[in-house]
Amino acid sequence: MQSIVLYLIPVLGLFGLIVMWFKSSWVTRQPAGDENMTQLAGYIAEGAMAFLKAEWKVLSYFVVVAGALLAWSGTLVPTSSPAIAISFVIGAVFSATAGYFGMNIATKANVRTTQAARTDLKSALKVAFTGGTVMGLGVAGLAVLGLSGLFLVLYNVFVVNTGGSVNGVEMEKAIEVLAGFSLGAESIALFARVGGGIYTKAADVGADLVGKVEAGIPEDDVRNPATIADNVGDNVGDVAGMGADLFGSYVATILATMVLGREIIVNDNFGGMSPLLLPMVIAGIGIIFSVIGCSLVRIADDKDDVQTALNIGNWSSVVLTTIACYFLVMWMLPENMTLRGHNFTNMGVFMAILVGSVVGALMSVVTEFYTAMGKRPVNSIVQQSDTGAATNIIGGLSVGMESTLVPTLILAAGI
């Protein structure tokens, strides 16, 4: 059973990437509009790719130097290994790839969404949402495939080939080296997010200064060539940077749970590895339910409530994943476990998962309330605009500060 699950998890990650490829191909096949539209979209795609290449070139130097230092540090700690440098590099490459997937599809979906919007809202939503799904599945698929595949290799190298035990120093060394994957992913996410964000804001402000202040033309006007740079910045910062950031956070979440799982002493049907495998299995199963949830996002021809359609897909995937977690926990984990002298049950583990799911869902509801059109917070800011920019800024700041209270209370209550 242990071997089956070990090899099944990377397959789930690969499944996510395959679905991503099909959705990306579908978006690419959609009409891109007239010659002017495709020309402008080509400029944006070319500029975004040029920025990514320049960013990757600089980051490659950092990855080499940091990898060398990690390899050296791996020789100083008995529970580590120089192989952590390889894990670090793989994590960095996967993180950069996740960002590229998002940016590549964004530069294709933008013009196709515009063309679809000429027909109706339903067509535009389908193209735009499918384009966003590509990055989401790419991030999840790469994370599950990379983390589980690397764990499989490290488990065989450090535990199986050395005759070590799951609860011994050999498994600790494997997890320590696996942590390099997360470090590489987070390092690239940091530079991609910050570097892309700086470029985004510089291009945005620069375009507005030239257009509105100097030339006296409206913001994002077609007569302003700097608008191209502004759109390039949106892609490299808000899409590529976001993709790398999400990848790093997703990997770190799974890995942190695995680190805790290694400390748990169990007697199960997985050779004592069920606490290590469960986080990756949940992430892999989550990909399947995410695909199902995405397929439920649709609006009727006579409807324009996009938020409701998105909520249906979001909530369905959350509910299905939570239900699946119950059966996975009951199947994989033994009834009683011990962590550093403290006893707990598999039902306690599921309750922690359930509380976390509820907290995350409530966070989503609160965020939607404070940011959605037609809700009280946004309407209050709109009303403040009637008396000028000063009251608008004050109103926006006050609503923003107010919006932090409920999420903080929810998070504290969940913990």
Question: Can you characterise this structure?
Answer:
It is a single chain. The protein has 415 residues and is an all-alpha fold. 80% of the residues lie in helices and 2% in strands. The chain has one domain. The protein has 12 helices and 3 strands, in the order H-H-H-H-H-H-E-H-H-E-E-H-H-H-H. Strands 1-2-3 form a 3-stranded antiparallel beta sheet. A hairpin with a 2-residue loop joins strand 2 and strand 3. Helix 8 (306-332) packs antiparallel against helix 9 (346-371). It is globular and about 75 Å long. The two termini are 33 Å apart. The relative contact order is 0.10. The model has no long low-confidence stretch (mean pLDDT 87).
Short précis:
With 415 residues, the protein is an all-alpha fold.
Main traits of this protein?
3-stranded antiparallel sheet, 415 residues, mainly alpha
Blueprint (SSEs and pairs):
Elements: H1 2-29, H2 35-74, H3 84-117, H4 121-160, H5 169-215, H6 226-262, E1 264-265, H7 274-295, H8 306-332, E2 336-339, E3 342-345, H9 346-371, H10 376-384, H11 389-402, H12 405-414
Helix pairs in contact: 1-4, 1-7, 2-3, 2-5, 2-6, 3-4, 3-5, 3-6, 4-5, 4-6, 4-7, 5-6, 6-7, 7-8, 8-9, 9-12, 10-11
